[in-house]
Amino acid sequence: MTNLAYTEAAMTQTKKAVNVTQTAGRQQLGDFAPDFARYNDDILFGEVWSKNDILSLHDRSIVTVSALVASGMVDSSLKYHLQSAKKNGVTKEEMAEVITQLGFYAGWPKAWAAFNLAKEVYNEPSANNKADKGSNNMDLATIKETSMFPVGGENVNYAQYFDGKSYLNMISTEQVVIGNVTFEPGCRNHWHIHHAAKGGGQMLLVTAGRGWYQEWGKPAQELKTGDVVHIPANVKHWHGAAKDSAFQHIAIEVPGENTSNEWCEPVAENEYNKLP
Fold it and tell me: Which residues contact 51 (CB under 8 A, 6 or more apart)?
């Protein structure tokens, strides 16, 4: 039987237990400059940003934004780090003070340019404001802007097993296979089975939006941010977005013996459309 558990406490970030994961280097430069990509993902973010015993993510964001503004970098890299600063708890008031201070030491034009980006980032509605709080609905653009892990490209390799468009970013392919899967509203995968002679199965950690999970012969279960789904091996099931909300989950493949995936028929459209 599916076990849905609410684990907000488990997702709480502590100062000394933060692991920053970055895959942009390998995604964008992996083929052209693999060493640089590795330094970016594994050293800069995997080690430096994840070392929070002295400087918190909040403090590191302020330092990074200050360095970029002082060097005149007011492009997409600054916007990314402003967005990260916002996620890491740097308030609008704190950011305004930081940039004002920089104006006197780094240059007034640089501060003006930085303020233009900062206003754009800090005036963006948060996911909670863009979402319908009653239903947890969320649009795809919001999920892409606020996703903890990169959304990745369109999931073309598995498109034949999905109704609608999905996006996939592999977070890990070593030790345990973990993927960040994002669904456009109305997108769902086909019925499928994670076979295993021993162990196996899958876990889903819902990180954004609203969706559905259903096992063969059982009612569909609504999924919202913070839900955890334990999918046993050898059980036929499907999961995906609600009709009016984008949806994102982390999919964790549970190790097992003689594992394989079997894709089955699509979810019947008339049955899916009955779901609220």
Answer: none
Residue where one domain finishes, among candidates 122, 157, 183 = 122
The two three-digit tokens of residue 50, written as one number: 């994840």
DSSP at 132:
B
> 227 phi and psi, to 5 degrees?
-75, 150
At 247, phi and psi to the nearest 5? -155, 145
Quick one: DSSP state of residue 55?
S
The dihedral over CA atoms of 59, 179, 151, 6, expressed in degrees to the nearest 10, equals -70
Does the pLDDT at position 107 exceed 80?
A: yes
pTM of the model: 0.54
CA 82 to chain centre: 17
Residue 199 three-state SS: strand
Is residue 261 pLDDT above 90, yes or no? yes
45 is in which domain, residue-wise? 14-122
In 3D space, the residue among 87, 148, 70 whose CA is nearest the CA of residue 122 turns out to be: 87
Of the residues 122, 153, 173, the one at which a domain ends: 122
Question: 130 lies in a domain?
Answer: no
Q: What mean pLDDT do residues 116-144 have?
A: 71
CA distance 47 to 52: 10
Q: How far is CA 108 from CA 78, 103, 115, 194, in A?
A: 17, 5, 11, 59
Question: Quick check: 58 and 90 in contact, CB under 8 A?
Answer: yes
Confidence (pLDDT) at 94: 92
